[in-house]
Amino acid sequence: MELVALRTFQTVVEEGGILAASRKLNTVQSNVTGRIRRLEEELGTELFFRKGRGLELAPSGRVLLDYARRMLLLERQTSAAVRLVGENTGELRIGAMETFAALHLPSALKAVRAAHPGMDLRVATNTSAELTDKVLTHKLDCAFIAGPVVHPELSFTELVVEELVQICAVGASPLRQPLILFREGCAYRSRAIAWQRVTGHAVADAMEFGTLEGILGCVAVGLGWTLMPRRVVEQSPHAADLVIEALPADIARVPTGMITLRDAPPMSALTTLSQAVANAAAPRS
C-alpha cells in the first residue's frame, strides 16, 4: 500500500471529490482516479459509493480513513525526525506575525544560527489565523502568534506580553478617522474593532493593508488610526509623526508566544529559538 495512494484517498475525502482533490494535489483527475482504483483493487473492496458525479464514503472507506490519517502522520513525524538528525543539519520552518518578526526574530535567529550553524532557516510572515493553519497542516514547524491559544493539537508557550496602543497622526482625531487594519485573521484586528465599538468612533469604515510599514506610513500621514504594539511604534521611522495613547489592560495586553504540534518530535533548535526570544524580551535589571 503506497503512501501516495493513501494521501490521495485522504485528499479526495477532505476536498469532497476527484476534481477538487486533483487541484489540491496539483495533478490531473485521471491520476487521482487511477490511484483510488488501484487502492480498491489492492484492498478488495469499494472505498466510495458513486452517486452520479458525486462520491460518498463507504463503510470500508471510513475505516481506511482513520488508518490513513495515522499512517500519514507517522510518515510526517519520521520525515521530521530524519530531517533533524544531529540538530545541526536540516531545515527549520518558522512562521511569525509581521510585528513579531520585526521586533523579536532577528536576534533570536542569530542565536539559532550560532547554536545550530548547519540549520537551514526558513521564515514566513502571515496573520495569526493563517500561521495556525500552516502549523496544523505541517507546513511550518512553529509559529509566533498572539494568544492565548487553546487547541487540542497545539502547544502554546507564552514568551512575551505585548502592549497594544492606539496611534494616530499628530494633530489628527481618531474619532473622525477610519480604522486601518491588517487583513482578516490578524489577532490585533479583532481588538481594534472591539475598541472602535467601545469608544464610539464616528467613522465605522476600515481600510486593510498587508504590511506593517504600509499601515504605519498611512497612519503617520493622517489617513486613519490603528492599534499596534508600543515597541513597534517607538522603533518605527514614523514615530515622530505619531501620537501614542494607552489602552485599558483587557485590550492592551496580548500574550504572545510559540505554537507547535503536540505530537511533533522534539527539536533542540526550537528550544534555542524560544529561549532566545524570551531572553531578549525579559526586562533588564
Automatic annotation (TrEMBL):
<dbReference type="GO" id="GO:0003700">
    <property type="term" value="F:DNA-binding transcription factor activity"/>
</dbReference>
<dbReference type="InterPro" id="IPR005119">
    <property type="entry name" value="LysR_subst-bd"/>
</dbReference>
<dbReference type="Pfam" id="PF00126">
    <property type="entry name" value="HTH_1"/>
</dbReference>
<feature type="domain" description="HTH lysR-type">
    <location>
        <begin position="1"/>
        <end position="58"/>
    </location>
</feature>
<dbReference type="GO" id="GO:0000976">
    <property type="term" value="F:transcription cis-regulatory region binding"/>
</dbReference>
<comment type="similarity">
    <text>Belongs to the LysR transcriptional regulatory family.</text>
</comment>
<keyword id="KW-0805">Transcription regulation</keyword>
<keyword id="KW-0804">Transcription</keyword>
<dbReference type="Pfam" id="PF03466">
    <property type="entry name" value="LysR_substrate"/>
</dbReference>
<dbReference type="InterPro" id="IPR036390">
    <property type="entry name" value="WH_DNA-bd_sf"/>
</dbReference>
<dbReference type="InterPro" id="IPR036388">
    <property type="entry name" value="WH-like_DNA-bd_sf"/>
</dbReference>
<keyword id="KW-0238">DNA-binding</keyword>
<dbReference type="InterPro" id="IPR000847">
    <property type="entry name" value="LysR_HTH_N"/>
</dbReference>
<protein>
    <submittedName>
        <fullName>Transcriptional regulator</fullName>
    </submittedName>
</protein>
